[in-house]
Amino acid sequence: MYDLKALRLKNLQTAKEKVRESIGADNFIVNSINNIEELEKVINTLVGRLKEWYALYAPELQRSVEDNESYVKLVLTKQKKDILEHLRNNFSMGADLKEEDLKPILSMAATIRSLYEEMASLEVYLEKTMEKHCPNVFRLAGTLIGAKLLRGAGSLKKLSMLRASTIQLLGAEKALFRHIKTGAKSPKYGFILHHPLVQGVGSTNKGKSARILADKLFIAAKVDYFKGDFIADKLLKELEEKLK
Amino acid sequence: MYDLKALRLKNLQTAKEKVRESIGADNFIVNSINNIEELEKVINTLVGRLKEWYALYAPELQRSVEDNESYVKLVLTKQKKDILEHLRNNFSMGADLKEEDLKPILSMAATIRSLYEEMASLEVYLEKTMEKHCPNVFRLAGTLIGAKLLRGAGSLKKLSMLRASTIQLLGAEKALFRHIKTGAKSPKYGFILHHPLVQGVGSTNKGKSARILADKLFIAAKVDYFKGDFIADKLLKELEEKLK
């Protein structure tokens, strides 16, 4: 007679081992890019709040700084009088806050700065992981676009099995289904729209660049998945030739 | 002949001074409560991400901790083997992550912890500001509900001019307008629903408690705005008498 209980335990153990073994670089990459995107959103929301709050103290700063990160930095590093002097403003509409009322605002700004640092270090980690896991895709697409493509496909394995035309449209699913359903214009590019080689060309050539880039990524993903050589520089050169 | 340019400058100066003088405790309170609510949302989102990520390492932890804050604390303070031992689990489905892959996860957890600290210190600041600005409303309603009422009205001045029935329904605007438009049930309470004296009673008496509490808040807001004495303890006693 079989020992069913022991057999069951053995099965459970094997299943758990399989789950454990399935965890790898793909998971780290997808989680990192998810977190980077989330942090970006969170930071934007909190900077909005900070601006509203700091405006009680020095509303003049708001209009003079466009970039959120420099705004936070200025709030943390400059005194109000330096800011006003720099803006050539000799009368601020902001109140003279007491130490105790200014402190929570500055503490908020410091928190946001630490979120920026967190995001930056996460990007470094993502870059390293991508470079090891899929060097060719990484070199061709860059960190963020590469990671988004990989997430869009599901894993490097799945990415390596996609057609070039699918890679070209990853990230444009909404527009694609709108095209299929309503006959609207078909999309020409997804995530790779933000690639310098696609962004850099005039709007009539964007579709063409996207197609050629997707062709090369199609090769790169296969080479990466089957642990081939580093051929990205060669691919990049061919790519640039074709785009001339 | 008038010096129009000088007159214009003088006018501008006066206007700016008026703007500056209008900034006060009301603004600090509204900004603090807005930020606390925002931080709460942000933390919840990031904890969700952290859980997904940490599950690669120790998925067993997820189900055993209900509260987000203790989850983050456990991730930061306990080793994986301690966690498994505590859960009486001798085989984890999570992968054995390398130092370099675990580090960004822990760094994320540390960031979330600092957001919790930020929120806690902001609550302390809000409490202090409320206690100074409107001691009676603060004592009756508590920090968070008091601040929300003040924000709902716009300022302490405006709160002191509202009717008790309006105070009772602050925060239930959506339900109120639905009632007016479609004839749905009228709401019985807004922000004050979460007050212990309203939460603590059975559902048949909730409306009554809310009404009596709003009556007392109506008095408290007026006393606070006109810088009267501290009568909140007396009001609270009357309130508790009535609710018996």
Commentary on this structure:
Two copies of one chain form a homodimer. With 244 residues, chain A is mainly α. The first copy, chain A, contains 14 helices and no strands. In chain A, helix 6 packs across helix 7 and helix 7 crosses helix 8. The longest helix of chain A has 35 residues. Chain A is extended, with a radius of gyration of 25 Å. The relative contact order of chain A is 0.10. The model of chain A has no long low-confidence stretch (mean pLDDT 91). Chains A and B meet through helix 1, helix 2 and helix 6 of A and helix 1, helix 2 and helix 6 of B.
Brief summary of the model shown:
Chain A is mainly alpha-helical.
Task: List the topology elements.
Two copies of one chain form a homodimer.
Chain A: H1 4-21, H2 25-54, H3 60-64, H4 68-77, H5 80-86, H6 99-133, H7 135-141, H8 143-153, H9 156-160, H10 164-169, H11 173-182, H12 196-199, H13 206-225, H14 232-243
Helix pairs in contact in A: 2-6, 2-8, 4-6, 6-7, 6-8, 7-8, 7-13, 7-14, 13-14
